[in-house]
Amino acid sequence: MSQEMLVLLAKSLWETTYMVAVSSFISALLGIPLGIILVTTNKGHILENTPLNRILGAIVNATRSTPFIILMVAIIPVTRLLVGTSIGTNAAIVPLSIAAIPFVARIVESALKEVDYGVIEAAQAMGASPREIITKVLIPESLPAIVLGLTLTIISLIGYSAMAGAIGGGGLGDLAIRYGYQRFRADIMLITVVILIAQVQIVQSTGDYISNRLNKK
Amino acid sequence: MIKLQDIEKVYQSDNGTIHALRGVNLSVKQGEIFGIIGTSGAGKSTLVRCINMLESPTKGIVTVDGQELTSLNEQELREQRKKIGMIFQHFNLLSSRTVYQNIAFPLELAKRSKEEINKEVLHLLELVGLSDKKDQYPAQLSGGQKQRVGIARALANHPKVLLCDEATSALDPQTTKSILELLKDINRKFQLTIVLITHEMQVIKEICNQVAVIEGGKIIEQGKVIDIFTQPQSNTTKEFISSIINHNLPDFFKEITLASEPSADSNLILRLSFIGHSTEEPVISSMIRRFAIDASILYGNIDHIQTIPFGTLIVELSGEQASLQQALSYLKTRELGIEVIGYVARNARAVG
Q: What is the ipTM of this complex?
């Protein structure tokens, strides 16, 4: 493999890592609070608010049911508004984040629902406010499950980022398509697939390890 | 210390309205251990949750330590709740926190300093006998140890009242006993008022001073434990008591015919109940000495309700009819409960 190819590979690896890292961070930043709101505004929960719960639920479902490739194209105006361009790695981060936020929200929602309501009741009996219940009970108690959920999100984003090539986002997936498939470079195809598999493995093992360390059950 | 006035609680559920509490009135004095007993679905869990307003009553007034809780807003209510400890059937400990951190939790909520928390938690650990387990997680503890952590956590803010929601129902009899001992101890040491709900009469018998029986959302009977045990009024109460003290006739009575009126050669069957110091009096032997009769004991049971002895005897008296009646009048002058079960023909059964 030529020097040139190696440089290309390194650049693509960096692009994938960058896109996935930034969009994971943004989706966690917005998805976790959204998941918390989805749980706590549920009927009978600490901040019961059925209308808000229904509206957020509907938005989340709508976003999740749109195929990523279509979402990416459909929100181009929003992307242009946010990053000034609709092409490139930074532009790809916008649709990736928007797709992952509701995903994270649902994962956090199901993780928080696993917390026994008795524990929340005990905290209420001790005079904890809703905010204290969220920060001191709900999140710490479901942290192992949240970590596993975020691991799953990162892995999904690695997969989605391959499609970012469609808007010139770059990354390993894009490289595999353009060189591996369209230019019949089987070696490039093979190496990108191996790198992607390795990436997923590393993320999953790290997530499992952290989750296990946090789990005291 | 605690006063509940005309508490009503109505839930709206998918299958219509549920009337969980229908006008409950209760008053608990400072330092008392007050038991509320009822079958599942009787409303006892709802009732105990009304005391710290985890469930807000649909109607009625809740007053704890002179403060009317039903008129407070959320913020004020949270402050008041810090003065009311609560323990649960399933302990409800935070699984992500160690024993030490669990006990520290209510102190953190009360915004106490690290040093204060440390001092308080170490003291509480000693009180409940778990000093050596302070860095373990709840998953590593037995049920009894978890409940001890629950108790320590409930006591952390020096509450005036401790609410126990089926606190021993998930524990084995041996552990139940030790937890009840601990509660009794705390009650004595800190003059802490304890309200506990349970479906086990054994728990009431073991530690309560006062008891209320709840059924269908209403208090159907209420009073001192010793009175409720010796003179239960309602059928539900009798049933609860019969689980630990046998008030029913032994089975073999079902096979013999009992007459309500004496006849020439019939024996008299009596149930005698003794309370307190009358258990120490030799009533039976002095009766036999005075009157020309024989007595045989068909069934007997002596128990203690905390420190007060309490017993039941079923005796069959045989002799001349006149002597039997004299003996009966004599017994009625003594300090004991007498119930004439009936008369039985002399040869209906062999007198044992």
A: 0.88
